[in-house]
Design the sequence.
């Protein structure tokens, strides 16, 4: 039994190590080849260069796509977080008929093949006579980001102590004033991390953008176009590395904010008890 | 009180004491607050899917849509050998991917839940980071790893395992499976982890005290109690992967084409919306059925073990 334990205790961490290698190897290859002084992505490496990064600055098409992505990302994160706040607040604060069904519908994109969401939106947009543009991408990606915003926001709202709001209302504050001065400060971290999560997803989202962007590509759509040309791969890898660093940065911020809030709430709860 | 008031017609409510009107009730406030989001989801998610459903029963003659109901699209989707092949392969791939992902992720979720100590959140964060990085480039990266002159081949050759590159690593269903398993790892770990966290640890101790071995207590206590997590992990991986478009396109080659490519074609070059709609609906229905059967089979197996 003890030897079994010992063996298992070594086996599991070893497996965890292998798993992490599997998880991180493909991610770490991007930066490696983006600094490699060769147009092919093969070993052995051919020396260090930053020319792929330099060439990005001169690439107008890429810069336009980057600006498009930023615009879409900002709009999607604000829109999906606003809609998420309404729904998450309604679901955590009130009991009403159809609550579960409403929640199910909003969360449904998690359980649908993305191509089907994309195709159905494309049909609606074209049937309604709308032109494909960044606006349609924004509308579509918001549907897709809502479930993620909702899970971040409901988690943030659930720990909220309702008596604080009641106290504020009893003391004569209006409903809006209570929201702004009592509720908002407590749930602000969840809102911030919802904004960041939605922005990160939007920045990376390909299928919906591919179907709905028309003639205005976002970065992933631009990258998709470049992947056909082997010679352009290192440039794409350099771009990918920049996006990778940006995503990790945003997620680290979101995670830190969330955890700090969690800790603050935990200590406050402790003081009350 | 609020609920009672909501059922009573306003005229019959006695004037004294003033009952809260329905518009001020909890139910009305909840509905009012959720309505923007709900309307958004209805108009841009539920309605579009209903339209796909409607289109799948119509037919198209060049550019005009004939709204007479027909089952012709479904006949094509289900019996045309090409679509049968694509749908069959997509189902097999998504089944294999979801099972492999859950099996290799379960020990990780266990490790974090039982041995994660104070750093559980950090572990979870590290697991999710790769999943947030560019999807296209992650798939591209696997192409670099599995390619003819790729990382794996050059590595194997320099280690002396083979003296010629293995050509069969890339451009087939296996490459698609490996890439998809990698993409969906975190989506499997998180739900399993959550259900493991909910298990009362004293139950496991009790099993040990009553003489169960580690393996038995795992099979009879931990596994059945974590089943909800395993099920949602299976579903959250299986259903979306069946419609994956990018991975088969980039690493699947000729033998790894999946149904999404055919669906996309009907909205692009092929331009047959009703057929595309029927293929979408068929895919959704078939994959949901397969998911249901898998969950049922899993429940039976676990009950057997117990």
Sequence:
């Amino acid at each position: 039994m003890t030897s079994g334990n010992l063996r298992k205790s070594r086996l599991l961490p070893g497996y965890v190590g292998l798993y992490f290698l599997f998880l991180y190897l493909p991610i770490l290859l991007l930066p490696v080849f983006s600094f490699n002084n060769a147009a092919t992505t093969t070993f052995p490496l051919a020396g260090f260069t930053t020319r792929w990064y330099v060439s990005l600055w001169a690439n107008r098409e890429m810069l336009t796509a980057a600006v498009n992505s930023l615009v879409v990302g900002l709009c999607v994160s604000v829109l999906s977080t606003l809609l998420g706040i309404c729904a998450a607040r309604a679901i955590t604060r009130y009991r009403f008929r159809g609550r579960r069904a409403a929640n199910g519908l909003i969360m449904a994109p998690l359980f649908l093949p993305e191509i089907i969401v994309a195709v159905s939106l494309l049909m609606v947009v074209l049937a309604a006579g709308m032109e494909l543009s960044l606006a349609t991408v924004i509308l579509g990606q918001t549907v897709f980001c809502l479930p993620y915003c909702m899970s971040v926001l409901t988690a943030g709202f659930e720990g909220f102590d309702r008596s604080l709001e009641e106290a504020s209302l009893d003391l004569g504050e209006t409903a809006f004033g209570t929201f702004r001065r009592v509720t908002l400060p407590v749930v602000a971290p969840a809102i911030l991390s919802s904004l960041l999560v939605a922005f990160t997803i939007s920045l990376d989202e390909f299928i919906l953008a591919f179907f709905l962007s028309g003639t205005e590509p976002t970065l992933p759509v631009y990258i998709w176009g470049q992947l056909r040309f082997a010679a352009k791969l290192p440039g794409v890898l350099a771009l990918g590395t920049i996006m990778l660093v940006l995503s990790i940065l945003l997620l680290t911020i979101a995670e830190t904010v969330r955890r700090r809030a969690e800790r603050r709430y935990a200590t406050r709860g402790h003081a009350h008890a | 009180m609020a609920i009672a008031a909501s059922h009573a017609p306003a005229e019959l409510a006695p004037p004294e004491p003033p009952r809260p009107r329905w518009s001020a009730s909890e139910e009305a406030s909840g509905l009012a607050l959720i309505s923007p989001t709900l309307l958004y989801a209805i108009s841009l998610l539920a309605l579009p899917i209903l339209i796909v459903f409607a289109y799948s029963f119509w037919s198209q003659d060049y550019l005009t849509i004939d709204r007479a109901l027909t089952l012709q699209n479904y006949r094509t989707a289900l019996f045309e050998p090409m679509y049968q092949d694509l749908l069959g392969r997509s189902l097999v791939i998504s089944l294999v991917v979801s099972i492999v992902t859950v099996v290799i992720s379960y020990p990780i979720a266990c490790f974090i839940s039982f041995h994660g100590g104070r750093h559980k959140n950090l572990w979870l964060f590290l697991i999710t980071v790769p999943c947030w990085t560019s999807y296209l480039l992650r798939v591209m990266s696997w192409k670099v790893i599995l390619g003819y002159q790729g990382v794996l081949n050059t590595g194997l050759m320099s280690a002396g395992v083979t003296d010629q590159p293995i050509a069969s690593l890339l451009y087939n269903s296996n490459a698609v499976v490996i890439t998809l398993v990698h993409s969906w790892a975190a989506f499997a770990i998180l739900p399993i982890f959550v259900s493991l966290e909910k298990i009362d640890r004293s139950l496991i101790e009790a099993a040990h005290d009553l003489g169960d071995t580690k393996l038995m207590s795992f099979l009879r206590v931990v596994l059945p109690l974590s089943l909800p997590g395993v099920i949602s992990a299976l579903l959250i991986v299986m259903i979306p992967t069946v419609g994956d478009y990018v991975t088969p396109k980039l690493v699947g080659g000729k033998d790894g084409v999946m149904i999404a490519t055919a669906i996309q074609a009907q909205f692009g070059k092929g331009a047959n919306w009703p057929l595309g709609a029927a293929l979408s609906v068929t895919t959704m229905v078939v994959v949901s059925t397969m998911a249901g059967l898998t969950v049922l089979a899993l429940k039976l197996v676990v009950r057997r073990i117990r």
Residues 1-11 of chain B have pLDDT under 50 and may be disordered.
